[in-house]
Amino acid sequence: MNNKSEVLAIVDEDFFYGIENGYYPQLAQDINEGRIEIISIEQYNNLRKCSQISILTNPKNQGKDFYIKNPYTNSYVSVLDDNIVYEFIKDRSLVMKEALVRLGAKEIKLEDNISDKDNLAISVEGKANNGVGNGQMEAAYTRAQSLNLHSLIESVDPNRKPKSYSVVQDYIFSHGLDKDSGIMLYLERLKEDGRLFGKEKYEITFCSEIQSAFKILSSIDYKLFNAELDFSIEHNCVHTVTKKLYLDFG
User: Fold this and answer.
1) What's the predicted TM-score (pTM) here?
2) What pLDDT score does 132 carry?
3) How far apart are CA 216 and CA 161, in angstroms?
4) According to the model, what pLDDT value does residue 176 have?
5) What is the distance between the alpha carbons of residues 58 and 133, in angstroms, rounded to a whole number?
6) Which of 17, 61, 98, 222 sits 20 to 30 Å CA-CA off 130?
7) Region 38-45: what's the mean pLDDT?
8) How far is 26 from 237, CA to CA, in rounded Å?
9) d(CA 20, CA 1)
10) Percent of the chain whose pLDDT exceeds 70
11) Mind listing the pLDDT tens digit for each residue in 193-214?
12) In a 10 Å sphere around its CB, with 0-12 CB exposed, 13-18 middle and 19+ buried, how is residue 159 labelled?
């Protein structure tokens, strides 16, 4: 796997043969330009045996095996998983807390909670009962409402000191936070000053990875995989959720 794309599809051997032999030139272009990565069932089984891929839900080989890469755990989550929003919010919260702890934050406090239903409400018109419809994402957001973000992301230790620049850098890059401009600015400040000072407000956005992935999926010819798919519906109803953190670096 080249890991160029945040979207992965696993297909049967015949379909994969067709892609390799030029039967689907647009799909080949999508792969080359990094919009999607496609592997065969056989390739997946070989990668799994060598522990080179982590997928939470095994493919069913029905033309619906699409996955989004979770950069915080370096694993793939099925787009059909009702827990997809829950998992991404939980994992981003945990790795963000650990990054801020390593940066030396003496206090990390969430200023509002995920249980705000207004932030999670969705309404979209479209086909239902097609395996990937608006009901699935609705269920995903409903499941995410049970998360207690306070327990996941808050931390207090007045004696906390920052880790070395190299340790913090390694953690940030190995847990998918290198695309977070705010965290990268904190890392730069740590490198220049040796530690961070003061009290700050920080906005953390959840589900942007899911939104981005469904935007990609809605742009490819997904009907080639299964006529029942309609990722345009999901793309229209995936919302980002933004929360505010209070940080005290001392």
Assistant:
1) 0.85
2) 53
3) 41
4) 93
5) 20
6) 17
7) 94
8) 26
9) 15
10) 87
11) 999 999 999 999 888 898 889 8
12) exposed
Tell me the C-alpha distance between 99 and 183, whole Å: 8
Between CA 188 and CA 199 the distance in angstroms is 17
Residue 130's SS3 state is coil
The pLDDT confidence band at residue 164, using thresholds 50, 70 and 90, is: very high
**Three-state DSSP state, 186:** helix
Residue 125: its pLDDT value, please?
A: 33
Pairing of strands 7-11, 37-40: parallel
Interval 85-104: pLDDT, tens = 889 999 999 999 999 999 99
Q: Contact 131/229 with Cβ under 8 angstroms?
A: yes
Q: How many CB atoms lie within 10 A of CB 143?
A: 17
What's the mean per-residue pLDDT of the chain?
85
Using CA atoms, how far apart are residues 120 and 14, in angstroms rounded to an integer? 40
Cα gap 192→165, rounded to integer Å: 9
CA distance 199 to 203: 14
Cβ atoms of 212 and 6 within 8 Å: the answer is: yes
Total H helices, total E strands in the chain:
11, 8
Distances in whole angstroms, Cα of residue 41 to Cα of each of 58, 59, 176? 10, 8, 27
Cα 37 from chain centre: 16
Closest CA to 91 of 67, 71, 111, 115: 71
* Strand-by-strand arrangement of the 241-248 sheet: 155-156, 107-110, 241-248, 199-206
Distance from C-alpha of 148 to C-alpha of 153, rounded to nearest angstrom: 9
